[in-house]
Write the structure tokens for this entry.
Amino acid sequence: MASLIERYRDRLPVTVDTPVVSLGEGSTPLLPAPRISRRLGVDLYLKWEGANPTGSFKDRGMTVAISKALERRAGTVVCASTGNTAASAAAYAARAGIVAVVLQPEGAVSSGKLAQARALGARILEVRGSFDEALSAARVLADRGTHVLVNSLNPDRLEGQKTAAFEIVEELGSTLDVLALPYGGGGNVTAYAHGFAESGAQPRLVAGEAAERGTTVASAIRIGTPAHAATAAEALASSGGTAVRLADEAILDAWRELAREEGVFCEPSSAAGLAALGTVELERGSVVVCVVTGHGLKDPDTAARLSPEPVAVDPEPDAIAEASR
């Protein structure tokens, strides 16, 4: 299969001299969601970005960012991360043979994401502060010229992420009415808007953000100050869309529904788009895509805490049948 960069080379900031660093990202499934479709009265599809190599949408942008960093002969990349960017940066840096430095807010990263970045050889530094403080430090290092920043402030990241919009339009054509997705830093909202604009499509954008950004259970969108707030607001307004502030329980209800009604196990933050759809008016029969951004194994602790415990039984058919009721 061709890499994401090869598939969309004419729409990405690469040249014949750009070394392509790929792990087979993109081409993720667009899954029909029949049960939730019936509840909402729409034709709903799930863009399952958890199928990317490191389990999140970040890989789309990271393949471009790391490829361009390698083209510029960078030896070290840096990111601030609540987990998904760290795992993706670590994987693509390892693939490229360069060093990834990860600045993670103290106590704010789930065990699954931390395990990924550690296993992939990143230099992980736990910052005694918030995500915003970690990002500020990463930006200073980038300004000094010693590190290449691979957060979404790097425009190459957003260029890669916009390709998800291309894939949706290719599969659905011009029939897409609404796109819903989580809203943390605002980079993905901005990237989708760019991708749809380049494809000649204009769905209404609905973004789900945590009402309590700094403490939400949805760790991937636990970002106090969105770096792309202005461009995200512009994208939402120009599409006739909106950002919806969500209580944690609404996000977790949507997370359970995706798992138990459609068989899609995502991390809690990835359900914010679906949670937001439940609060806005949708035209009956419209075509809606909900972006599910990351795999559930990114946050196994939350999944274990919120799911029923296994039931112990004897290895006897009657006992098993009784316990199965």
In short: The chain has a mean pLDDT of 95. DSSP finds 14 helices and ten strands in the chain. The radius of gyration is 20 Å. The longest helix spans residues 248-262.
